Amino acid sequence: MNGVNYGNSVLGSQGSSRLSAPTRRERLRTSTLSEIKEEARRLLVTGGPDAISLRAIAREMGMTAPAIYRYFDSLDALVEALAGDLYAELSEVVATAKQDAGDDPVTQVKAMARAFRGWSVAHPAEFALILGNPLPGIVAFQESCDEEHHPGVEFGRPFMETINALWLRERYATPPRTLMEERLAAHLEPLRASHGDQYPIEVTWAFLSGWSRLYGLVSMEVFHHLRWAVSDPGALFEMELHAYVDQFTSQKS
Amino acid sequence: MNGVNYGNSVLGSQGSSRLSAPTRRERLRTSTLSEIKEEARRLLVTGGPDAISLRAIAREMGMTAPAIYRYFDSLDALVEALAGDLYAELSEVVATAKQDAGDDPVTQVKAMARAFRGWSVAHPAEFALILGNPLPGIVAFQESCDEEHHPGVEFGRPFMETINALWLRERYATPPRTLMEERLAAHLEPLRASHGDQYPIEVTWAFLSGWSRLYGLVSMEVFHHLRWAVSDPGALFEMELHAYVDQFTSQKS
DNA sequence: TGCCATAGTTAACGCCGTTCATCTTCCTAA
DNA sequence: TTAGGAAGATGAACGGCGTTAACTATGGCA
């Protein structure tokens, strides 16, 4: 019956203040809202995704669980909002690393990859929430989200742009263009829908290939799936990064 | 107070039958045991890892929840046993694919990779349980398991052997040996503990690099982390497989 | 001043894992 | 053949969970 319950989108009945200082009510609301999410993150960090519970959050805040329903429609909605925040945080970390890396695309790629790994290793629980096994509630969210504004798109953009700059400069080696056109190009509509046709297929391939390699290695490290093989996953990571970047800078095949 | 509760390891007080026909009791026990795990898997498939509950299993079996404690010490122990079975199943699928692929290592690598993806895509919930975000109870299991008999070791063995055969034949390109010795070799004790020193560092690198690429791509597909980019992840997979194998067969750098 | 949306409460329902005391059934050892 | 004990299964209970419904207090605006 109630309207959708999220953020400060409640827009007080009368305009109150169109753009200037928010109402006292609004200030309190946003404050409580972020306190809830902070508490949820704390639980996430200490006990994993399943440890996030309305009752625990409320207890920690000196409230009762049903009160949280004034701010989120369900536990899933809360977790979803938290996931959105974390996605933005990670995106910004990566984007900042790129900005701080100077103008060389090779340096930029390395900086972004290291920043991604750094954040992930430092925040394994958060990584699990947004990039691991998606929870049942999150799956629906991902499917319902229209492709154009999917958080993954914004996250991948700086990678994509850098790989493109690299391509313009180096014309690095890729699988044969005919093969890529034939087997891959037909299935890239989703990506085209968000990035347009501005990138050649070589760039698209290099981006997807690189992202999957980065993701695979980092998530194996974060989830301890490398413990049986390597004592310091960072060394393996640097090795792989070297191999990936080398692909772009050595002479073409 | 009770002894550890798993499998048919209860060993009836008196020897009863050392090696021949198992007791009626034992037959019933193993039958119930596997029925519990089957029901658990059914719940896993239909509702994800969190849907596995003792009460639901018991309900479906016409029992009460506490009865299951005669067979498993806890829900975590049950899930852990199920994960072990699934690991074995996946390992066998991959090993069989290799056997059916003839003698050429390149063909073998492709067959194993495709078999791995095939099983994973066909059984996403099972994949999530054994290769995704580890549940809190599973983490302890992985850490307590002595490295030598870690299921991951047996799973990776056919890959490792094939990559080695490929190396003996092709002497494919890798990162410079000096770099690998310097940065990677010092951190491979866990892998050496299980496989011995029989493999040169080039093989180890190619194996770990390939496994992480395979894992990354497949888990992104299984977890729908590629939906925003690619409509048919299989095409991207074949592309990446091509690029990986090509690395081994084209002329050395 | 009166109103009413907003924030918060208590109580309850049905899930869950787990423990405990209890009962039945079956196998074995005397 | 029978007594005893182990193994299997039960019902009741505890505390925790998400969620709903009915209810109370309060702050800000007409």
TrEMBL record, chains A, B:
HTH tetR-type domain residues are: 30-90
Look up keyword Oxidoreductase and say if it applies.
no
| Pfam families per the UniProt record, alphabetical | TetR_C_33, TetR_N
PROSITE patterns registered for this protein in UniProt: HTH_TETR_2
Give the region (Disordered) as residue ranges. 1-29
DNA-binding region (UniProt annotation) = 53-72
The keyword Iron is annotated on this UniProt entry: no
Q: Give the InterPro entries listed for this entry.
A: Homeodomain-like_sf, HTH-type_TetR-like_transc_reg, HTH_TetR, MT1864/Rv1816-like_C, Tet_transcr_reg_TetR-rel_C_sf
Compositional bias per record (Polar residues), positions renumbered to this chain: 1-20
Keyword annotations for this protein?
A: DNA-binding, Transcription, Transcription regulation
* Name of the molecule in the record: TetR family transcriptional regulator
**Organism the protein comes from:** Asanoa siamensis
